[in-house]
Batch of 3 targets.
Target 1
Amino acid sequence: MSKPVKRYNLAELAYPDIREFLKESDIIMIPVGSCECHGQHLPLGTDTYQLHAIVKRTAELTNIPYTDPLMYGYSPHHIREVGGGIGTMTLRASTLNAILYDLGRCAIHAGFNKIMYIFGHASNLKVIDAVLRQIRYDTGAMVGYAKPFAERYMGVVKDILEGGPEETPGWHAGELETAQVMAWDESLVRMDRAETCVAKTPDWLPKEFKKNDGLPVINLDGYEYISFMMEHQDFAPKAIMGNPFRASKEKGERCVEAYAQHLAKAFNLLKPIKVEVKHREFENRAL
């Protein structure tokens, strides 16, 4: 009889498997993505799929389990017009924080002491500081997060991506994201629909203001002190910032591996740390 495949996703495990993981390590990963418009050529689950690839590989390198990735995140700026058929599914900040709190408390209740949220969608980071701190204050657990994506900071993928800064290769539906979805499932990518696009200044701002990428800041005279609450289509009408034609499956696989190796190093360093949870039971789990 063939040896069973090693699995790390809690949804695919039975409780004796969880107990085996806890014998070696008290760390668990909770990946959180999004379901939002990513141009005409990428699926709405782009942030979640590429994150799942990274987390799955990290688990293989560290023998650390993870919860099934949360497909929905904070994406109000991607909803667009009523009845427009865009398909974005967003959670309100209060809803997302409630889910993150409950997942963390369940993991601590089960016996994990170190809760690492892994975010594949940058806008989730705008709303999560308070809730992650609250989990720590309520329980004493170690609570942290990782954000294995690029945007302005190329980090471990800088030598893999080929596009220059003018192409914003780490941004929305560009070179990096297209490549990593190819690595996850190439059949999800419709390159016959792809376009190269750059961010633009919203039409409702004076021409002196400049918009270079997806951050909420506006550039004036070379400085970035001012931000506006913008919709994504204000500066990226087709939900693309970058050159997806530079993407390849091989490049995506290299990026996934680079991120996973970095996370694995971090988590292996965290394994020996002793954390004393002061309050483990999740009593208010019903309301």
Target 2
Amino acid sequence: MDLSTYHSHCDFCDGHAPMEEFVRAAVAAGFHAYGISSHSPLPFYARCAMRAENVEEYLSCIDTLKREYAGQIELYAGMEIDYINEEYGPAIAYFRELPLDYRIGSIHYVTHPSSGRLMDMDGGEIGFRTALAEIFDGDLAGVVTAYYDASERMVARGGFDFVAHLDKVSVNAERIDPSITGTRWYHDRLISYLEAIAARGLMIEINTKAYPGLGVFFPHRRYMERIRELRIPVIVNSDAHYPWAINEGRAEAFEMLRAAGFRHTTCLKGGKWTEIPIGE
């Protein structure tokens, strides 16, 4: 089982410890590689996001840790970049020109198609319910549609290496309507998104963050066989916000992948994305 992760946070964004504490935890756990990927700056204030004026320090801190831990672990500078619209996302020049080792494409905000108002679809249940009522007039299907519309636009624009938690909208959507992800239209929309990812030659992560609390992965296990059929490379990531969580759900994710017929996962080796057998 590969011990690496490329989706993690620290106190430059909404992580709960300095980045070196995460690195120390990774070394102690025997990781061969660890990527730090704080939330990107946004064109508006958001508590979870890194501020633009701190990006230079963020990259400098990672460079320092790379030198200090050389020979113990491969460290990589990443960033989880939110796609907001055509003017702000992973493909814009600002993010393309940052000296990052890799970039993650992510959706946390959706735009109402008529009013243009932004909704945070990733908050807690109370916040989601409130925003759903205020911004989308309670139209849950409209939020989900806006999420996958934005996701496919992000993929078409590119500028990143892999897609983060590609069906994360399902968590809050199911809290409102537990049946929604079992509908045919939802299934067809997610399959369409996977096909767009495959057509662009992008990778996806198997995100384990929610597994300890909810028993689910992003994407949901029901889509694993289709992902394999589409030959989309997969990376197992913990999306850790605490140092103790860097390996949560990993063993279960690899077990799920084996059961779905996967033989390889992807990791960074010497700075290059490399397929490795699951058994290694």
Target 3
Amino acid sequence: MTIPPLPRPLLLKPGDPEAVRELFERIAPRYDQLNDLLSLGLHRLWKRQAVAWLRPRSGQHLLDLCCGTGDLALILATKVRPAGRVLGLDAAQAPLDLARRRAVAQPWLALQWQQGDALATGLADASQDGAVMAYGLRNLADPAAALRELRRLLRPGARAAVLDFNRPDLAAGLPAQAADRFQRFYLRQLVVPAARLAGLPEEYAYLEASLERFPLAAEQRLLAREAGFRQVAHRPLAAGLMGMLELVA
């Protein structure tokens, strides 16, 4: 399998809060369509697996960190009716605007949207019965600080699911090395060309660059334990190309 080079020099610096915010402001109008296309719709299955781990119940207060256009928040809001509520928080305004427009079609759902920093939400300690974060941890400047903030927000015993790309551990042998090669081929040969058709090649070339600094699964587990979670597991998805941290506060 031949892995083509990245399409052009990457100007977006992974982990730079302002650069990441501006990136999501730009891609917001095409984000949902490209997600469906590039994952063949499987991202919806992975998100539902995150919801299944969370076990949302009626009356709970739940948090969707780095909520984007609101996919997970909308699903969760159907689960906590009639007395619960879901708060979606994101650093970028454009995805939040889309999330609000999507929520208008379901006015019976108790949803709130807030622009803010996942590393310093300003929310009260132990104020959430559960939380999700999909494709957000990899983009934050300090994943360890994000996990500490997530733990601070959760009540004892609350669950959290953190869904993202998985960076294969090359030291784990041939299966992981094959997964790494396939992942890079997929990102360069399929994702970036599709994004180029939408006028967003550099923005999606950023995916591979962001993975290079993303903690491995074992490192994520360690960071979660250091953040104070009492139960920590990392579940590989999509043959190890994706992964989910399953946490209990």
